[in-house]
Write a structure and sequence with these properties.
Shape: globular
Radius of gyration: 21 Å
CATH topology of the largest domain: TIM Barrel
CATH class of the largest domain: Alpha Beta
Largest sheet: 9 strands, mixed
Distance between the termini: 37 Å
CATH superfamily of the largest domain: Metal-dependent hydrolases
Helix content: 25-40%
Number of strands: 19
Bound molecules: N-(aminocarbonyl)-beta-alanine, zinc ion
Length: 459
């Protein structure tokens, strides 16, 4: 099957050109002006941007948390991703206590099998570091699982001590893996949480007040210091505050390989949302928490200056009505996480490009090219080039719409950007030459998405 995408403006991280794109089978065959070639199907992209399919390197589908599971599974979550212009996700498999990393990985492979609409890879969350799990890391890298998330928060659930973190980092200096860090000082936070609850401060806003930005800054600094000692790179996930960003900037200015992502919720929402009345603030509980609004400009500067390299979602949806309510009367029991996989591409386009904060090429870099490079998928994914997978978005930058739970495709009963007016829509979304979304029609089927074996960290 050959598809000609005709007359669009092709945007990659490096270039913006008027060109046609010929897709042959699963890959891009040719890019050129006025291509005079036979094709089975022609897509008119006049007045549209043709951009790489998004790569969301941080999702949690079907994830157990706080006695419940995230509301999207691999079918619904990847369908929503496709609707939103994201054609690849990298999700997190979780090691159970006493279990090998391999077993955790295989459990998540089974969750995804036959369900996914977009291509997917896995990071593995390491809960125990010992000789066996270190050996497991090496073996997983051979299977295309090349990044490992560690936690400095959630004592008793996910948190590792510094010695364990340091051991895992040392291992990645030998095996080519990348450590991803949830950087918050979990010990201090837990003390604050217990004190607040004893004092009867139980509303959702206290989630933010007990997880101060300074404790994200401290942990980020510590994570980078440990990585420097181990002589490896580190990737800070869901960076939310100027305190944490300062630690990354300081390290990068010294030439240290410190990398970080932020998420749309930290760019567009704020601590004020956690203070919404009648427990509505619970909809905005995630960790690290939303920060006071004045952190947002710092994060945008970080994106502009490449101190933050990637925008991922940390998509981890919980229904307000029957999941977030688990924490009524005790904010610490509100399942942590926000939905976003469907909206990332457009909110970053609108709030970034339309608002004049970033250019088109930087937009593509943040949502597709940089995650592909960071997580061993480039140049198969993350760009438009001959031989690359034909994961493409024909994007109409003129359509005005309002984000809402009443129209989104994520399987969750609220949208944290409810009512946000945006300009732009992924009109045609193609993965490996198959059209998944065309206007209001969804052509994909579960199982269309394939597992991606990723390469080692390029660094
Ligand atoms: O609140 C969040 N971020 N939930 C998902 C788990 C994590 O720490 O990424
Ligand atoms: Zn995390
Ligand atoms: Zn996460």
């Amino acid at each position: 099957m050959r598809t000609l995408i005709r007359g669009g403006t092709v945007v990659t991280a490096g270039d913006t050109v008027q060109a046609d794109v010929l897709v042959d089978g699963e890959t891009v065959a040719t890019i050129g002006r006025g291509l005079d070639v036979a094709a089975d199907r022609v897509i008119d992209a006049s007045d549209r941007y043709v951009m790489p399919g998004g790569i969301d390197a941080h999702t949690h589908l079907d994830m157990p948390f706080g006695g419940t599971f995230s509301a999207d599974d691999f079918e619904s979550g990847t369908a929503a991703a496709a609707w939103g212009g994201t054609t690849t996700i990298v999700d997190f498999a979780i090691q159970d206590f006493g279990e090998s990393l391999q077993a955790g990985f295989e459990r998540w492979m089974a969750k995804a099998a036959g369900k996914a609409h977009v291509d997917y890879g896995f990071h593995v969350i390491v809960r125990e570091v010992n000789d066996q799990t270190l050996a497991d890391m090496d073996a997983l890298i051979g299977q295309g699982v090349t990044s490992f998330k560690l936690f400095m928060a959630y004592p008793g659930v996910f948190m590792l001590d510094d010695a364990s973190i340091f051991r895992a980092m040392q291992r990645t200096s030998d095996n080519g893996g990348l450590i991803m860090m949830h950087a918050e000082n979990g010990g201090a936070i837990d003390v604050l949480v217990r004190r607040y609850l004893q004092e009867g401060r139980t509303d959702p806003i206290n989630h933010a007040l007990t997880r101060p930005a300074a404790m994200e800054g401290e942990a980020t600094h510590r994570a980078i210091a440990l990585a420097r000692l181990a002589g490896v790179a580190v990737y800070i996930v869901h960076l939310s505050s100027r305190d944490a960003l300062s630690a990354v900037v300081e390290a990068r200015d010294r030439g240290a390989p410190a990398f970080a992502e932020t998420c749309p919720q930290y760019l567009f929402l704020s601590q004020e949302d956690l203070g919404r009345p009648d427990f509505e603030g619970a909809k905005y509980v995630c960790s690290p928490p939303l920060r006071p609004r004045d952190h947002q400009d710092d994060l945008w500067n970080g994106l502009v200056r490449d101190d933050l390299q990637i925008v991922s979602t940390d998509h981890c949806p919980f229904d307000y009505k029957d999941q977030k309510v688990l924490g009524r009367g005790d904010f610490s029991k509100i399942p942590n996480g926000l939905p976003g996989v469907e909206d990332r591409y457009t909110v970053l386009f609108d709030g970034g490009v339309n608002a004049g904060r970033i250019g088109l090429n930087r937009f593509v870099e943040l949502v597709a090219t940089a995650p592909a490079r960071m997580f061993g998928l480039y140049p198969r994914k993350g760009t438009i080039a001959p031989g690359s997978d034909a994961d493409l978005v024909v994007f109409d930058p003129t359509v005005e719409r309002v984000l809402s739970a009443s129209t989104h495709h994520m399987r969750v009963d609220y949208n944290c950007f409810e009512g946000m007016r945006v300009r732009g829509r992924p009109e045609v979304v193609m993965q490996r030459g198959e059209v998944l979304v065309e206007g209001d029609r969804f052509h994909s089927r579960p199982g269309q998405g394939r597992f991606l074996k990723r390469g080692p960290f390029p660094g």
